[in-house]
């Protein structure tokens, strides 16, 4: 099996992220996704409706920037490109030059993605994983899945998609560990200022302790 540079296979699919000290956010009774930003008027669309527009199945590996990869995950959902064409473009004034998209989760997590990367054929708004509805560890009720980009692009518990005509303000602009804007796994675009190779060994020491933290969840369930 070929993995992107600097990645190692882990068993199962750990719950991971910047949020491990919190339980996953509760799933709302009627989940909606708000579409806002550079649209004429914001709209709220039931999450299930977005994920059901154009059902696809995709098997892909998942790569966290910290160096672990979960392999052979089977996602189901709708390509983001379909959501954009059917539900977003009609909301835009003609000629609005959308350049960036912000995906926000119910826990406040955000990922900033260039529109062209978000429109790639392998980017899904997913509501099922391995034949089951997404569980809370992995992003219930719906999440973004962009397997060609590191995990931090793949916002879970999606509740808002905001469209921008220029790069939005970037919270970690001055951080030496700022995330890479494009985060393409095959280019090893982990960080903006540091080459991927340099940070690999640091991350490696963190994977085991962080996995322990998340072990109560999905690893056990997936066996
Ligand atoms: N809402 C939300 N989405 C998130 C995160 C988060 O903390 N909150 N962490 C990101 C990171 S860093 C990773 S590696 C993946 C982990 O996905 P998993 O928990 O399904 O393994 O989720 C991403 N999406
Ligand atoms: Mo990650």
Automatic annotation (TrEMBL):
InterPro entries xrefs: OxRdtase_Mopterin-bd_dom, OxRdtase_Mopterin-bd_sf
Domain of life: Bacteria
Oxidoreductase molybdopterin-binding domain residues: 30-167
SUPFAM superfamilies reported in the protein's UniProt record: Oxidoreductase molybdopterin-binding domain
Name of the molecule in the record: Molybdopterin-dependent oxidoreductase
Organism field: Nocardia halotolerans
Lineage: Bacteria, Bacillati, Actinomycetota, Actinomycetes, Mycobacteriales
